[in-house]
Design a protein that fits this description.
alpha/beta, seven-stranded mixed β-sheet, two-stranded antiparallel ribbon
Length: 410
C-alpha cells in the first residue's frame, strides 16, 4: 500500500530530538557561563530553526570593561606589613599597595581597597565577587588553582616553623612530633604541613598569622607557621620568636582572581612585564632590604627607647619635619641613628645633641644651646632639608640617600 508521505522511523525521530535537545542545552550552558564569567565579548549562537540563516548575538560586557566603566579597581587585601598598612606618618603603604597603585595607574583607574581580617575571609569575598583582585601575599598552590586564577609570580618565600626562642632548634623531621602547632585557617601553610603526616597541628579560624606569632612570643602556644618575609619583619616586634625549621622553600606569591577573567588577567600580565624590569627590584628592596640585619640586643634597646624616650620628642620631630618638607618618621629615625634620642649625646669629634650638630652648623642655624632638644631637632630638620635641596635634580629615593650622607659629613 502506497502512502503520500514518508514516515520517519522512530530511530530517526529520536536522533533529531537528541540534536535539538543538545542545541538547547548548549544554549542554556552558554547563557549560564556568561552570567558567571562575564568574559566573553560577543557569543554567537545558532538557534534550532532551519528556515532562518540568522544568528542571535548575546553581547556580554567583560569584567575588565566593567572595571573601566566603573572607573575604579576594587582590591581585596589584609592589613599586614607584607601587604597594606598605614605608616607612622598615617600614609598608606605596603608592597601590595605599591603594586596595585601602579597597575591601576596603567589602566588610568582609581583604587578602592577592601580590608579583611584573614585569608579565609579574603578568599570568600573573592568568591562572592566583592572585588576584582585579591592582593595579599597569597601563595600559589594547586588547591587554590582549581578554583582561582593567578597573576604573574612577583616574589618567592620560604615557610618556617616558628617557635619561642627557648625551644631547641629542630634538626630532624622526627623532632617535629609532639609539638603544639597552631596555624591560621585558609593559609597555604595548611597545604605544606600535609607533607609531614606525623606532625600534629590544628588550624585557628579566628587568629591570623601575626596574632599567632604574638601568642608564640608570649608562650601561649608552642609554635606556628609563617612565611619568611612576614617572620623577618615581625620578629622585630615579637623578639622571642625564632625560626626552628624550614617546612617549604621557594613558595611563589601572586595576585588571585576569579577564573575566566581573561582580559583582566592579560592586563595584569602586560603591566607586570614593565613593572618587573623598572620597579619591582626597588619595591622589594624598600620593604625587605633591611630584614637580614637583625641584632637581638640592639632591637631590644630600640623598642625600649620607643616607649621611654621617643614620646618626649615626638611632637618636635613631627612639627619640624612638616615645616621642612620631610617625613616625620624619617627624621625621628635619623635622630635615633645619630644619638639614640639622647639630647646630651656627644661624639669624639665634638658634635652634640639629639641631632648631633657641629658647632658651625648649629651657629649658622641660630642654635644657642645644642643640648636643648627642641632647638636641636628644628635645626637638624632645617639642615637636612638644605641637603636635599642641594641635590634636587636627583630622583627619589636616591635624593634622600644622598642628603642623609651629606648630613653626616658636614
Amino acid at each position: 500500500m502506497n502512502s503520500c508521505c514518508q514516515v520517519e522511523s522512530p530511530k530517526n525521530i529520536t536522533a533529531q530530538l537528541l540534536v535539538r535537545a543538545g542545541v538547547i542545552l548548549l544554549f542554556t550552558l552558554l547563557l549560564l557561563a556568561c552570567g558567571q564569567s562575564e568574559e566573553a565579548d560577543t557569543v554567537s549562537i545558532a538557534l534550532p530553526e532551519h528556515d532562518s540563516p540568522q544568528r542571535d548575538l548575546v553581547s556580554v560586557t567583560t569584567s575588565l570593561e566593567k572595571i573601566k566603566k566603573r572607573g575604579k579597581l576594587i582590591i581585596l587585601t589584609t592589613n599586614r606589613p607584607t601587604t597594606y598598612y598605614y605608616d607612622r606618618d598615617n600614609e598608606l603603604t605596603g608592597p601590595e599597595y605599591d603594586m596595585t597603585q601602579s597597575f591601576a595607574k596603567s589602566l588610568q583607574l582609581d583604587v578602592e581597597y577592601k580590608v579583611y581580617e584573614s585569608t579565609n575571609e579574603l578568599l570568600m569575598a573573592l568568591r562572592n565577587n566583592e572585588g576584582d583582585i585579591a592582593a595579599s601575599a597569597l601563595t600559589v598552590s594547586k588547591d587554590r588553582g582549581r578554583e582561582f586564577d593567578y597573576g604573574p609570580v612577583y616574589q618567592k618565600t620560604n615557610e618556617y616553623l616558628v617557635c619561642h626562642r627557648k625551644k631547641s632548634r629542630i634538626k630532624k623531621i622526627e623532632q617535629l612530633n609532639n609539638i603544639e602547632i597552631v596555624i591560621a585557617a585558609g593559609t597555604n601553610y595548611l597545604v605544606s604541613v600535609k607533607e609531614y603526616p606525623d606532625m600534629a597541628w590544628v588550624s585557628d579560624d579566628h587568629l591570623d598569622t601575626i596574632a599567632l606569632l604574638k601568642e608564640t612570643a608570649e608562650g601561649e602556644i608552642d609554635c606556628t607557621v609563617s612565611d619568611s618575609t612576614l617572620f623577618d619583619i615581625e620578629r622585630r616586634y615579637y623578639m622571642e620568636i625564632q625560626n626552628k625549621y624550614t617546612l617549604a622553600k621557594n613558595q611563589a606569591l601572586a595576585w588571585v582572581l576569579n577564573k575566566h577573567n581573561n582580559k583582566l588577567k592579560q592586563a595584569i600580565i602586560d603591566w607586570f612585564k614593565i613593572y618587573k624590569k623598572e620597579d619591582l627590584p626597588q619595591m622589594l628592596d624598600k620593604y625587605y632590604g633591611f630584614v637580614e640585619i637583625f641584632d637581638y640586643v640592639d632591637i631590644h634597646k630600640f623598642l625600649d627607647r620607643v616607649k621611654t624616650r621617643l614620646p618626649k620628642y615626638k611632637k618636635f620631630f613631627k612639627d619640624a619635619a612638616i615645616k621642612n618638607g620631610l617625613q616625620p618618621s624619617l627624621l625621628a629615625a635619623q635622630s635615633y641613628q645619630e644619638s639614640h634620642w639622647n639630647r646630651k649625646a656627644k661624639s669624639p669629634t665634638g658634635v652634640r645633641g639629639i641631632m648631633m650638630l657641629t658647632q658651625p652648623v648649629a651657629k649658622s642655624l641660630g642654635v644657642t644651646n645644642r643640648l636643648h632638644a627642641e632647638q636641636n631637632i628644628y635645626a637638624g630638620a632645617k639642615f637636612q632639608a638644605k641637603m636635599k635641596k642641594m641635590v634636587e635634580d636627583v630622583d627619589e629615593p636616591d635624593r634622600t640617600w644622598l642628603a642623609l650622607a651629606a648630613y653626616n659629613v658636614m
